Amino acid sequence: MSSESKRPQRRPLRVELLEQRELLAGDTYLVNFQNDEGTTPTGYLRDSGNLFGDRGGGYSYGWSSDHTDQGRERSVLADQRLDTLIHIEARQDWEFALANGAYEVTVAVGDPGNDHGLHTVNVEGVSFFSAVQDGAGPMFATAEVTVADGRLTLDSGAAANMATRIDFIHIVGIPSTPNAVPSAPNVTEPAFDGQEVNPADVHMEAVGYFDPDSDAHKSTDWEIWTTGGGAEPVWQTLGIEGVERLHTHLGDGIFINSHAGQIELNANTQYELRVRYRDDAGSVSSYASRLFQTGAASSTFALQLEDIPATPAPVWTSTLGTPIELPVGDSFLSPGDAIIAFDFDAGTDSESPNGEQAVDVLDGDPGTKYLNFGKLLTGFIVTPTSASAVKSLVLTTANDAAARDPASYVLYGTNDAISATPHGSGREQNWTEISSGALSLPDARQTIGAAVSFANDTVYSSYKLIFPTVKNEGAANSMQVADAQFFAQSGGAGPGVLSAGDAILPVQDIASTFTSDSAPGEEVDKAIDGDAGTKYINHGRERSGFIITPEVGATTISGFRMTTANDAPERDPSAWALYGTNEAIQSVDGGFGDGENWTLIDSGEINLPLERFTQGGDVAVDNTLGAFTSYRMVITEVRDVNAANSMQFSEVEFFGGETAGLPPKLSIEAGSTGSPFLQIEGSDLPGNLVTDFPEMANHATVRIVITAGDRPLSLTRSDLTIGDGAGGERTLFLPAVDLAAGERLDLWVSSAGGTYYGTEGQTTPDFSLLARSAELDIPFVSSQPGFVVEQVGEGYRLPVNIAFVPNPGPNPDDPLYFVTELYGSIQVVTRDGTKHEFATGLLDYNPQGPISGSGEQGLTGIAVQRDELDPEVYHLYVGMLWDNGSPAGGASHYPKVERIDSVAGGLSMDSRTVLLNMQPETQGQSHQISNVSIGPDGKLYVHVGDGFDASTAQDLNQFRGKILRMETDGSPATDNPFYNAGDGISPTDYVYAYGFRNPFGGAWRASDGKHYEVENGPSVDRFAQVNEGVNYGWDGSNASMQTFAIYNWAPSTAPVNITFVQPETFNGSQFPASFQDMAFIGESGPTYAAGPQANGKRVTQFELDANGDLVDGPNTLVEYVGVGRSSVVALAAGHDGLYFSELYEDTGEGGATGPGARIYRIRYVNQLAGDYDIDGDVDQDDYTVWRSTYGSNLLLAADGNGDGVVNAADYTVWRDNIGAALPAPSPAESPIAVATDSLAADQSEPAPDDSLLTNAVFAAFSPEATPQSSASSALDSLAANGGSDATGRDAQVQAIEGLARGRRPMRPAWTLELSPASETEQDATAADRDAAFAGLRRPTQSPLSPRR
């Protein structure tokens, strides 16, 4: 492989630390020779040149002399096994301690960084290489050897020192006597030839081990090969033991040959899986194989809409937020037009270093100072907070260099507005001299000088203080002063006039020089010469520009366009101001550009591309003033003023005049028919012309068509935000556009808003060529109207389950939910949204294997309850794998259930107790103990996977493959279906149901009291109702996964969690009535796969009937639309929505196990404002929801104004909509309808002040206060703070008292049935409410519009 080969992905060392053991036939040992700093390939032992000795884990190996300085890593080959090596020193050997017997040995030699090796290798006297010259690549040799002295010995014979470079060695025990071979495996995953799998997540499974000699299954060799001509192995894991003998993943092995360095297979490619068994005598079976096909690495889903409503209006901006306006009119500049350069800034010698600016004379700190290198005639202009007649001033000397002290002064005053610029002449205003004279500042440093007094009775708004001379002009390089203060009395008496924060500018009072300057060949005429290879540069930098008089005469400008120059992007214009005049131009080239009277037309920002010689987007000019004969373009800012020494661009074009022909246009339309949703067209008037079209009969895929019209069109990258017709908004991410006249650009839109290039004739989406990816903060979107996805937590590491506290406390620091993290930590989140580390280090091993692979194990299921006697103590019931010291750090892990008790308050662990230890039953990656729940009977229900051994699921005397039922003290429930205490307690006594493969998720449905599970199969997944004593049939086949299934996913989507939205669980999680009693399932999809996936990475919903049979589903509620690694794992119904986790940090920067995963909430945003309990009307119950969540930034059901916190403004939303209701749906309408405009309150009433309203409301409804006292005290407070007056006080008190009485104990004081019989009562209620809060309203506030 060439030196340009892809570098391998670095993986952590994976060495299983085992007890000292006898190394037996059938064992496989893979050793990589390398430098100590190099990464060790997965599955290999590391040898970095140490002397023979104990390497840990039961292995002893090493060299006869120190070779630690002979290890190399060439960083040439992606295959780490072949990129690393050790030079063998002359007459030395390497040994590996082994049981005596026969072995098959493979040795690799070669040096990818050099070609002068001469390799000799002997193993146990058998020659593998004899003075073999380096070839074009590594060389391999395999032979059988016999070990008779307990050590396998490798040497390089008589080879010269360092001539042999050894890469790796494979040692595999083989039978020393005749031994029957095992039967070939039965490959069950992939399930059939041609099955399509994700290239990042290939599940490989084989069953049916049989050995004629009854030898045990020792290990398995797994290989993936390419097919066709030149077939080669591209991935392998050799001699793997444990559960990976039966089921393995790509992460358990290494990519080799043409795929070396990859972390996944190639997409859309056929491969062959080859697998063989090895028994513990060392015999291997023949290979079994399975052809399979990889699909796309990710799937892109099309955006589908029925309507883009006129409201909210579309918002189209550049990526910097500048509005996009489609330009109309023709270009009216030409190379012969009269054009001159200018710069507003006047040149002086004034300059101050950082930290020694004019503002420092106002800080009152003699330790700081103002220094000006202009020296003579320097000073400052200051505008005090209040105008005054200054009669004296005081100066403080600076820290050093007395020669720089001012020696004289001149003080001026003005009442003109200050337009001077920093370090200018300061002569732009009309100044009146107040006083002048000599100064005698003390030579002592940081010392206040004597006051200088003068006569002045004129009040000025601004003052200019100039220091014409310094103490020693020859010795000083600058002027400096520490502080300055002005006084309105003589002698420095009274308070000072100046204060920190006053506007102040450094100046030098000299005749200014022009600062406009261009290098030869880069003058202003190059801006309109039509040649992008030339440029206009002005060293005046910002506030420079050009004045142009077009030959065509007076023209109405409507837009302009600039092209970047050849270099220095920091000099690009970034903001502009455009002026017009009809006077003859008197300004001179290179002057100030102020010889005429100019009228400001428009100003704004410009977002030029970073690419050089590149045309920027068209910039619209909002010109309501008409035509001008000349224009002055001022560049007010450049891209990076600190880095730029000038302003530059290569070309500028102006557009305008009479509009003729076709304007540019953007159309959003149905991809299949071309029928328009929305059209945006260029217009002569400011802004764009927007046309909204009627709603379509059905959802349609979305295509965007941009046409240039009769002149070229150039647009920068932009974002177009539209309503989606379902109460939400979508942002469409548009690429830069550069079209010739008459051209069009077709773009297909993904569900995330990303755009892809299409062609005019296409009618179905084509996502093969990305135009611009979606830039999303949250990579999940809702597929159903009214729902939003919000981030509520971050910084998790492999969060696998969420458990809400069933009856959480009311305080901000009370626990709300707990999150288990796979590698042994639990986090608790309080009601205020704060995450606390509850417990860490809960595992007694470090699951550092790969994902996907052996790293997928640890801490999983969790259930929570509060202590009955002390509710401040929380009990957590968790499931995990544990090695239990058998041996410590060993490869075997055992499932167990623990109870973890909290300290008071629930924010950290106090103690832990083992409830059930299932040792000696072992489990490993994925197929482990998982869901833990507390049933309606108060029992613990625990899901236990089959440990990759299907036979366990049918064996009632094993815990694996079961759903267990037990008391909360860990004992089996005595009414379990197979309980029999007569024969002692055994796994059978715990079994509630059996025949499961991998039942990841479980949840309780309140309407039938049943438990439901979701389960991963080999290629078919299952959703089932769990019934007592039932065998669910798992026997190793996909067919058995259909037993008692409500629904099967085929192909698999990896459903991992389930929850029900139901009134009995947190009042239905604030979901609409039509969503109650539905099951929601998290489908995680392919492990650690990037981008959207057709099979998973979503939350789906199912509707069941009363018997638990399927009525409808799955229907997608939320799906992943990003480009990263996020997936859906944890899923739980909370107080105000469904909460779910992404298992992996989305970007993948920290790898699959890195921290940074987030928790999200799926929340329903009600279309009826104020209906906080989502029951279709606005009534007192909604007030109860508001009150119970007041102040929360997490529980947002009552966040009526959508500002992210429940506060008094949300009360106002409820108040202003009291009595409103959704109309009864017609048969053709959705049950979720838009609110009508019928509001009980007058919408013109201003909203109350938050703090005053909050005090009044909580005083009125405080459980601790009487109605009379609370109402009276609240109104006293309001009156004191200007929120109420004495007028009508008695009526206000009575009204609040009445409300308080009616609310305590939270029972209705009125009803709001929208029936004729209740209208009078409803009117009375509104009157009472308005009377109660009449004094709380502030007439200066604008009304709060109801949300729809």
Structure write-up:
The protein is mainly beta and 1348 residues long. The protein folds into 7 domains: 28-174, Galactose-binding lectin (Jelly Rolls, Sandwich); 186-293, Immunoglobulin-like (Sandwich), CATH 2.60.40.10; 330-345 and 515-656, Jelly Rolls, CATH 2.60.120; 347-513, Galactose-binding domain-like (Jelly Rolls); 664-775, no CATH class; 787-1164, 6 Propeller (Neuraminidase), CATH 2.120.10.30; 1180-1336, no CATH class. It is built from 9 helices and 83 strands. The strands form 20 sheets. Strands 23, 48, 49, 50, 51, 56, 57 and 58 form an 8-stranded antiparallel beta sheet that branches. Strands 1, 2, 5, 6, 8, 11 and 13 form a 7-stranded mixed beta sheet that branches. A hairpin with a 5-residue loop joins strand 69 (929-934) and strand 70 (940-944). Helix 6 (1250-1261) runs antiparallel to helix 7 (1267-1280), helix 7 (1267-1280) packs across helix 8 and helix 8 packs across helix 9 (1319-1333).
